[in-house]
UniProtKB/TrEMBL annotation, chain A:
Pathway: Amino-acid biosynthesis; L-tryptophan biosynthesis; L-tryptophan from chorismate: step 5/5. The keyword Heme does not apply. It comes from Secundilactobacillus silagei JCM 19001. It is an enzyme of class 4 (lyase). Tetramer of two alpha and two beta chains. Belongs to the TrpA family. The keyword S-adenosyl-L-methionine does not apply. It catalyses: (1S,2R)-1-C-(indol-3-yl)glycerol 3-phosphate + L-serine = D-glyceraldehyde 3-phosphate + L-tryptophan + H2O. The alpha subunit is responsible for the aldol cleavage of indoleglycerol phosphate to indole and glyceraldehyde 3-phosphate. This is Tryptophan synthase alpha chain. The active site is at E44, D55. Its EC number is 4.2.1.20. InterPro entries: Aldolase_TIM, RibuloseP-bd_barrel, Trp_synthase_alpha_AS, Trp_synthase_suA.
TrEMBL record, chain B:
Transmembrane segments: none annotated. Keywords: Amino-acid biosynthesis, Aromatic amino acid biosynthesis, Lyase, Pyridoxal phosphate, Tryptophan biosynthesis. The gene is trpB. Its cofactor is pyridoxal 5'-phosphate. This is Tryptophan synthase beta chain. Pathway: Amino-acid biosynthesis; L-tryptophan biosynthesis; L-tryptophan from chorismate: step 5/5. Gene3D superfamilies: 3.40.50.1100. Its EC number is 4.2.1.20. The lineage of its organism: Bacteria, Bacillati, Bacillota, Bacilli, Lactobacillales. PANTHER family: TRYPTOPHAN SYNTHASE (PTHR48077:SF3), TRYPTOPHAN SYNTHASE-RELATED (PTHR48077). The modification N6-(pyridoxal phosphate)lysine is found at K95.
């Protein structure tokens, strides 16, 4: 069982997301530590990309803020942030980024650094099942889970993807890009049921969740909830004061996902 | 005109050596798979092929002329120069070849809405045109900077019944328009077909676009044979994403005596930051669904690019071009803004042809290389489009104010 799978043991997981270097180095460290203190089970750190095609306006704006001062922001600086974070918390961490960032650093070198720093998983929206072969050997070697995405239109791909998954499975709540929503696809339970038929790897629903009510609802369908844009909005709105707000929000959301007993 | 051979490319895997692939969000994977299967089916379907043929002939005005540029040949004093006149197609550029093929496929797939990205607006205009022809809904994504500098084409698209969305994210140019089109597609796949405008993106786009554009070299090869009995010694075409170039090269790739040259936009110079010369300045990467060559920084962020030509300022190149470059089968040369503008004026005065500024990148290379070649040698240069759309910006470049 991997460290990420462990995070779902005997409870529903709350998985917040923030973008690295938004607003800066220190802010990132403080924000992640606050999320951990608030009770996040896994924290997803987004590595900013110039062209985040799977992300909506809120996360796009975070990426722009993160790269504004230094468009050449080196990957090593982000690894340094994680090293700082690791001095203060051992919360399971995963990166969310686009494949080119990993490709440029080198698959072997990148996953080796992840292992060293306790980054247990990678969520890469532009790396579907068919293309993960090039990264998989290095990821396996360094015990980094490649978290796959399953969507309401994955159809007969669901089983193939689920069978290959380790860590957890990212269930995309609806069509489109990331961003807060008021409605989700209505066949999510069926989707999760199909996944559970072929694997014990836990599922977490993401894309659009922002209220505690939604988190409760989604955690009844799946094993956890991922919240991105709502956290990023807090960072955007409160800047240096964001950590305290993120901590409160995480407490509330963590309670919301565990509002009902685990089956 | 003989029917277009859509089975020229024996490699239909979507991989060109290490390049190509389908690096795209999961939401789109099933749809790309449906598209791939539909294309594999319809490209061998006699009815589809007849429809395609009739549209190319009766609607797009094919075959396009292969024209012997006699004055230019004499003036340059070397190789004989033939111009493949894609500028004479309906809508004024090679873009229509691809658009007809893909829209026909979309129709057969039961789609009722076409979306597209556009830079200069030529592909958007071609897509809006074919959408009007088929009575389909059409929405075009165009960077805000491009909608501002190509107002005429924006109006043309609207006139044709399309809705144009100015894209305000990122650097507000072509690459951002592609991002926006992809994002729109992930929201609405059922009735929507994303009609990609160049030989770029995830499989099957590079393959389909190449096949539909290969009409350029299929015709040129036959036409030149009729006129001279020979193969060309060199084929030259401009490269943005690479659709007119791959179409110009396709039927000559297996003829080793034919040198293939792609003219990239060097902007202010290949060595400067203000360039779009992807093959010369770029490096391997993964973006917009494909592994290919890109202009990017060390971390892997995609660079803003620059060229006077809105159709060539794209930070990447189609995967098959990356492969042809890597294997040495084709060469890629950078042409600066200055050289392209000089060529724009040169070909106007020398041949009476106002060619697109994109195409003039190829013409500029011909001006350099023809004098160094023998008189019995032959160059085929593709004029990918006509230059009416560029007249006002060239005037501005020369400091002439023709706007009110
Ligand atoms: C006339 C013309 N030529 C060339 C291009 C570049 O595209 P490609 O490299 O795909 O042929 C464009 C794109 O807008 C164009 O309008």
């Amino acid at each position: 069982m991997t460290k990420l799978t462990d995070a779902f043991k005997n409870k529903k997981a709350f998985i917040p997301f923030i973008a690295a270097n938004d607003p800066d180095f220190e802010g990132t460290v403080n924000n992640v530590v606050a999320l951990a203190k608030g009770g996040a089970d896994i924290v997803e750190i987004g590595i900013p990309f110039s062209d985040p095609i799977a992300d909506g306006p809120v996360i796009q704006a975070a990426d722009i803020r993160a790269l504004k001062e230094d468009p050449d922001l080196p990957m090593d600086t982000i690894f340094d942030m994680v090293a700082e974070i690791r001095k203060q918390t051992d919360v399971p961490l995963a990166f969310l980024t686009y494949l080119n960032i990993v490709f440029q650093y080198g698959y072997e070198a990148f996953t080796a650094r992840c292992e060293e720093l306790g980054i247990y998983g990678l969520v890469i929206p532009d790396m579907p099942l068919e293309e993960r072969g090039e990264l998989e050997p290095a990821a396996k070697k360094h015990h980094v889970d490649l978290i796959p995405l399953v969507t309401p239109v994955s159809g007969d791909r669901i089983e193939k993807i689920a069978k290959a998954a380790t860590g957890f499975i990212y269930v995309v709540s609806s069509l489109g890009v990331t961003g807060e929503r008021s409605e989700f696809a209505n066949d999510l339970s069926e989707l999760v049921t199909r996944i559970r038929k072929v694997t014990d790897v836990p599922t977490a629903i993401g894309f659009g969740i922002h209220t505690p009510e939604q988190a409760t609802e989604m955690a009844q369908i799946a094993d956890g909830a991922i919240v991105g844009s709502a956290c990023v909005n807090i960072v955007a709105e409160y800047g240096k004061q964001a950590p305290a707000k993120l901590l409160d929000y995480t407490k509330q959301m963590e309670k919301a996902v565990n509002a009902h007993p685990v089956r | 005109m003989t029917e277009l051979n859509l089975n020229l490319n024996k490699n239909t895997t979507g991989r060109y050596g290490d390049y190509g692939g389908q690096y795209i969000p999961e939401t789109l994977m099933n749809e790309l798979d449906r598209m791939t299967k539909a294309y594999e089916h319809y490209k061998n379907d006699p009815e589809f092929k007849t429809e395609l043929h009739d549209l190319l002939v009766d609607y797009a005005n094919r075959p396009s002329l292969l024209y012997y540029a006699e004055r230019m040949t004499k003036d340059l004093g070397g190789a004989q120069i033939y111009l493949k006149r894609e500028d004479l197609n309906h809508t004024g550029a090679h873009k229509i070849n691809n658009v007809i093929g893909q829209a026909l496929l979309a129709k057969h797939m039961g789609k009722t809405r076409l979306i597209a990205e556009t830079g200069a607006g030529q592909h958007g205009v071609a897509t809006a045109t074919i959408a009007a022809y088929f009575g389909m809904e059409c929405e075009v994504f165009m960077g805000k900077k491009d909608t501002d500098r190509q107002k005429l084409n924006v109006y043309r698209m609207e006139l044709l019944g399309a809705k144009v969305h100015p894209v305000t994210s990122g650097s507000m140019v072509l690459k951002d328009a592609i991002n926006a089109a992809l994002q729109d597609w992930t929201k609405r796949i059922d009735d929507t077909y994303y009609l990609m405008g160049s030989a770029t993106g995830p499989h099957p786009y590079p393959l389909m676009v190449r096949d539909f554009q290969s009409v350029i070299s299929q015709e040129a090869k036959t036409q030149l044979k009729e006129k001279t009995g020979k193969l060309p010694d060199m084929v030259v075409a401009c490269v943005g994403g690479g659709s007119n170039a791959i179409g110009s090269f396709a039927n000559f790739i297996d003829d080793p005596s034919v040198q293939l040259v792609g003219a990239e936009a060097a902007g202010k110079g290949v060595e400067t930051e203000l360039t779009a010369a992807t093959v010369e300045r770029g490096s391997n990467g993964i973006f917009h669904g494909m592994k290919s060559m890109f202009l990017q920084n060390k971390t892997g962020q995609i660079n803003p690019v620059y060229s006077i030509s809105a159709g060539l300022d794209y930070p990447g190149v189609g995967p098959e071009h990356a492969y042809l470059a890597k294997t040495g089968r084709a060469q890629y040369v950078g042409i600066t803004d200055d050289e392209a503008v000089d060529a724009f004026e040169y070909i106007a005065k020398m041949e009476g042809i106002v060619a697109a500024i994109e195409s003039c990148h190829a013409v500029a290379y011909v001006r350099k290389i023809a004098p160094k070649m023998r008189k019995d040698q032959i160059i085929v240069c593709t004029l990918s489009g006509r230059g009416d759309k560029d007249v006002s910006s060239i005037a501005k470049y020369r400091g002439v104010d023709i706007d009110d």
